[in-house]
Design a protein that fits this description.
The complex is a heterodimer.
Chain A (H helix, E strand, L loop, with lengths): L1 H16 L23 E5 L14 H12 L5 E5 L2 H9 L5 E4 L6 H4 L2 E16 L20 E5 L5 H5 L3 E5 L1 H10 L4 E5 H11 L7 E18 L5 H17 L2 H10 L2 H15 L2
Parallel strand pairs in A: 1-2, 1-3, 5-6, 5-7
Antiparallel strand pairs in A: 3-8, 4-7, 4-8
Helix pairs in contact in A: 2-8, 2-9, 9-10
Chain B lengths: L1 H24 L1 E6 L14 H14 L2 E6 L2 H6 L5 E3 L10 E10 L1 E6 L21 E5 L6 H7 L2 E5 L2 H10 L4 E5 H11 L7 E5 L5 E8 L5 H17 L2 H9 L6 H14 L7
Parallel strand pairs in B: 1-2, 6-7, 6-8
Antiparallel strand pairs in B: 3-10, 4-10, 5-8, 5-9
Helix pairs in contact in B: 2-7, 2-8, 5-6
The chains are: A alpha/beta, B alpha/beta.
């Protein structure tokens, strides 16, 4: 009897399979990191266009990391993940070889077991939705000017300075922060200019001009690669990566990858200067 | 006498009010899209995962309704409760609670009517797919540019059956598909050749199926805890295993399931927003 019921169920399922299948939210999801069998895996937090499965080569930073390891003839796999909680899990629970990105939420204690290598320095600006603030918002380098408003922070971001200035904080992922700006549940966010342009072009192209940038740099954030000393190959890979990074800076590959993605020669120059300084330490 | 009648009336009225309030508090709408055998309007209790939801709800006294919508509408709506693999939703919506309830596996499949090349039953790098054509269900490919640049040709299809027919005919080299779907499709289409369809695992871990509760859901933390409690109950009392056995012949190992669900609980842990 049970077998008959199971057969009936299988028949019903197969009948459905023979029909046209719409897009499924419980199915295969094939992105650039669907084949993740490489044991030398680096977990990167999505920050388009720097690190993203939606950008060619996984984004400028992913390409730089791959190029540096390739220079040393070493194989790694970069897995881009959407949530900071995932980075935290892979680092603390699965002792990942390395993690990468910005606002990773790594504690001071955990930082002691990490070797950090900066890959890109991003200057950020505050951004607000003009139709909800027709008179405009002004930062001018002083957070007190934004007192009483609500700041939309990235998860994992240290927000103590905002709370100290009587600014409320709500956290979310980048795309949802843009939506919250439009809904008015938050008043302003901070983002590197390249990320801002990417999100506005891709998701808000029709009203991108309504998102207004405040005057003054809100913060300067480094996108970093952190090697885990609790991983048996952490130190070895860190040393090799530094060698590879030095090679690609010297042979021009680093600059050409940045030029391809960033298309801003003064920013490329700034990054090269910064990288020279880091490598000469 | 009149006082007694009045008192009884008041008690009945108050009890009904409390019951209705409790029912309303425990009535939840979750939204899914057709993804058989996990979710389907035409399968008993809305499919395998639908039945898990049904039993969880029964065990924790929550009145759950599953509504089916096209995936694009589920993704666009960033205030609803969703069902499925969180990876499809979290780019667009920050959820307040994510409760993994089940797992599914995905593999590459190739066809071979000889056992001569046993080495090709593993794939360690995406470079091994360069120059090959890979079939997959329409909508599963998130970024085609990267694969095109690599020289991997993806061919999308609207039907699971046509994927495996193409594979058998040699029109494509591989199929990427859910294991449960593949097993049932291959058995139906080619019952005498089941062993000729070689499964190549491509991911170290299963994929999660979760209940995703929106910030807008009333009593969201309370509801999430009730669902977790219900899930624990049906795993303990064997109901969960019975559901899986209806759909798959794969051996159920409770310890593995709990370990994997806990892994996804941590991966999708939602820290307080404020």
């Amino acid at each position: 009897m049970r077998t008959t019921n199971k057969n009936r169920l299988n028949f019903l399922i197969l009948l459905i399979f023979s029909l046209t299948i719409p897009l499924m939210a419980t199915g295969p999801r094939v992105s650039t990191n669907f084949l993740t069998l490489d044991e030398n895996e680096i977990y990167a937090l999505d920050i388009p266009p720097f690190i993203s499965t939606e950008v060619s080569g996984g984004g400028a930073i992913s390409e730089i990391v791959n190029a540096a390891f390739s220079e040393e003839k070493m194989s790694i796999a970069i897995t881009t993940v959407p949530l900071q909680s995932m980075i935290k899990y892979y680092f603390t629970q699965e002792k990942a070889l390395a993690i990468m990105g910005r606002n990773l939420g790594v504690s001071e204690k955990d930082k002691k077991s990490l070797i950090s290598i900066p890959l890109y320095i991003a200057s950020e600006n505050y951004l607000y939705y003009k139709p909800l603030h027709p008179k405009g918002l002004e930062f001018k380098g002083e957070l007190l000017n934004l007192k009483g408003l609500t700041y939309g922070a990235s998860k994992g971001e240290d927000t103590s300075s905002y709370k100290n200035k009587n600014i409320k904080v709500k956290k979310g992922r980048a795309l949802s922060l843009f939506k919250k700006l439009k809904k008015g549940t938050i008043d302003f966010i901070s983002m590197p200019s390249l990320s801002r342009q990417w999100f506005l072009e891709k998701h808000h192209s029709k009203d991108k001009n309504n998102f207004t940038v405040m005057e003054g740099i809100s913060k300067t954030v480094a996108i970093k690669l952190y090697f885990n000393l609790n991983h048996s190959k952490g130190k070895e890979f860190s040393d090799s990566f530094k060698k590879g990074l030095r090679s690609i800076v010297q042979n021009g590959k680093y600059a050409s990858i940045l030029k391809k993605h960033i298309k801003n020669s003064s920013d490329v120059k700034l990054q090269l200067k910064f990288m020279d300084e880091f490598l000469s330490r | 006498m009149f006082q007694r009648i009045l008192l009884s009336f008041v008690i009945i009225f108050y009890s009904t009010y409390l019951y209705a309030e409790n029912l309303e508090m425990n009535s939840i709408v979750l939204e899914a899209n057709e993804a058989p055998p996990f979710w389907s309007k035409v399968l008993p209790h809305n499919g395998m995962a639908g039945e898990i939801i049904y039993e969880i709800s029964k065990a924790c006294a929550i009145n759950t309704t599953i509504i089916f919508k096209p995936l694009s509408r589920l993704i666009e709506d960033d205030t609803n409760n969703d069902l499925g693999n969180p990876a499809f939703f979290i780019d667009n919506q920050d959820f307040k609670q994510i409760i993994p309830i089940a797992l599914y596996n995905i593999s590459l499949y190739r066809y071979s009517n000889s056992n001569s090349n046993s080495n090709s039953n593993t794939i360690k790098s995406i470079d091994e797919l360069v120059g090959k054509s890979v079939g997959l269900i329409k909508g599963a490919l998130i970024d085609s540019t990267y694969f095109k640049e690599k020289g991997i040709d993806f061919e999308e299809s609207y039907s699971h059956q046509s994927l495996f027919k193409k594979l058998k005919l040699g029109r494509i080299d591989y199929v990427i598909e859910i294991d449960l779907v593949s097993q049932q499709t291959i058995r139906k289409l080619f019952p005498l050749e089941v062993d000729n369809f070689i499964q190549i695992p491509i991911q170290r871990f299963s994929n999660p199926i979760a209940i995703m509760l929106a910030h807008e859901q009333e009593n969201v933390d309370y509801i999430a805890n009730k669902y977790r409690e219900g899930l624990k109950k049906i795993i303990e009392n064997g109901v969960y295993e019975k559901i899986l056995k209806k759909y798959s012949n794969k051996r159920f190992v409770k310890a593995d399931l709990l370990k994997n669900l806990q892994r996804y609980n941590l991966l999708y842990y939602v820290e307080d927003e404020e």
